Amino acid sequence: MRTLLERGVSIIFISHKLKEVLEICVEIVVLRGGKVAGHTQPGRATEESLAEMMVGREVLLEVDKTPATPGEAVLRVENLVVLDDRRLAAVKSVTLEVRAGEIVGIAGVQGNGQTELIEAITGLRKAESGHVRINGQDVTNAPPRRVIEAGVAHVPEDRQKNGMVSAFPVKDNLVLQTYYIDPYADGIVADDRAIEASARELVERFDVRPRNIFSRIGALSGGNQQKVIIARELSRQSRLLIAAQPTRGLDVGSIEFIHKQIVRMRDAGAGVLLISAELDEILSLSDRVVVMFAGKVMDDMPIQNATRNLCGLLMAGVDPKAAPREVNQA
Of all residues in the chain, what percent are helix, strand and coil, respectively (each to 5)? Predict the structure, then answer.
C-alpha cells in the first residue's frame, strides 16, 4: 500500500482494526449509522477516540474481568491426532484441558492445526487417534448433535459453511441446535410462536440488524450473520463454549459486547476454549494460553506468563526455554 502511495495512487482503506487505520491512513473518516460521525488524522486520534466516534459512546478496549476460579475439567483432549484435507497430520498428539470457570485461549498463526483441532472436538472432522472427553463423556468421533447434547456451544470459524443455513430466515437459524426440543417443538410439530418470540428477544439483545426475524440470513452483512450465530450459541445453557474467531467482521462496539458475554459465561461456570487469529484478543480474554505451532502444543501457561514477545516466539516455533543447540566447530 505504501508503494502504491509513492506511485501517486489514492487509496480508500476500510477496516474495523483501529491499529491498522492509525498506522496506514493520512486522513480518517468515521461512519456511524450511514452518516459521517467524525473526521480526524492519526496524529490527533487514539484507538479510544476512534472507537467512541464509531459507537457513539465510550468503549472499553480492554476486557474487564476478575481472576478465574477454575473448577472441574469440562474438556479433556488426550494425544489427539487429526489429518487435514490432504491426509497429512495437522494435529500431532495434542493434549489439553479446559476447566469450568476459565477461558483457555489457543494462540497460533493461522494454519497450524487450530482449525482441525476444533473440528475434531466438535464432530466436524474424524480424529485418527486419541480421545476427546466432554463433561466426562467420551465423544471421540461422535456426530455434532451428540457433542451439542453433551453441553457444548460452538461458534465455528467458517460461519457460512458450518454456522448457518443461508436460505433460512434469521428466526430458524437461531434454533438450529434446539428446534427439536421444548419449548420450540411439541413432538414433531414446531412451535412457531415460541421460536419467533425467542428470535425477537435475541436480535434485540445482540443488536442484529435489520431487526426483521423473517429476513433471509444470507442477505445480512457478514457482521450481522456473525451476531446471529453468537446470539444462538451464547444464549444456550452450555457447560463448554468453543469460540473460533468469535469477533471476526464485527465493529469495536460489538466486539466489546461479545467479550463481555464470553466473560459472563465463564463467570457462570462454563469453560471456554477460545481460538483467535488476534493475539490481542487472546491475551485480553484468556486465563490460560496454549500456543500451537505445526500441529503441536508449544506451551500451556497462565496468562500472567503469556507476554506478547514470548507468545510471538512460540507461534514461530521458537522455544526460549529450550537449551541452545551446540555449534559444531571444525
Answer: 35, 25, 40
Tell me the residue ranges of DSSP E strands in the chain: 28-32, 35-40, 73-83, 89-99, 103-107, 127-134, 137-138, 152-155, 185-186, 189-190, 240-244, 271-275, 288-293, 296-302
23 contacts: CB under 8 Å, gap ≥ 6: 42
Cell of 242: 468453543
CA distances from 124 to 138, 157, 162, 237, 264 (A): 16, 12, 9, 22, 27
Q: How far apart are CA 146 and CA 310, in angstroms?
A: 38
- Residue at 2: amino acid letter: R
Q: How far apart (Å, rounded) are the C-alpha atoms in residues 61 and 19?
A: 12
Q: pTM here?
A: 0.87
The CA distance from 78 to 94, in Å, is: 6
- For cell 501457561, what's the residue? 301
Helix (H, G, I), strand (E, B) or coil at 43: helix
Grid cell for residue 58: 465510550
pLDDT in tens, the chain (330 residues): 999 999 999 999 998 888 899 999 999 999 988 899 999 999 999 998 998 898 888 877 778 899 999 999 999 999 999 999 999 999 999 999 999 999 999 999 999 999 999 999 999 999 999 999 999 999 999 999 999 999 999 999 999 999 999 999 999 999 999 999 999 999 899 999 999 999 999 999 998 999 999 999 999 988 899 999 999 999 998 999 999 999 987 888 888 889 999 999 999 999 999 999 889 899 999 999 999 999 999 999 999 999 999 999 999 999 887 755 554 444
Q: What is the DSSP secondary-structure string of 163-211? A: I--TTSBHHHHTTTTTTTSTTSEETTEE-HHHHHHHHHHHHHHTT-SS-
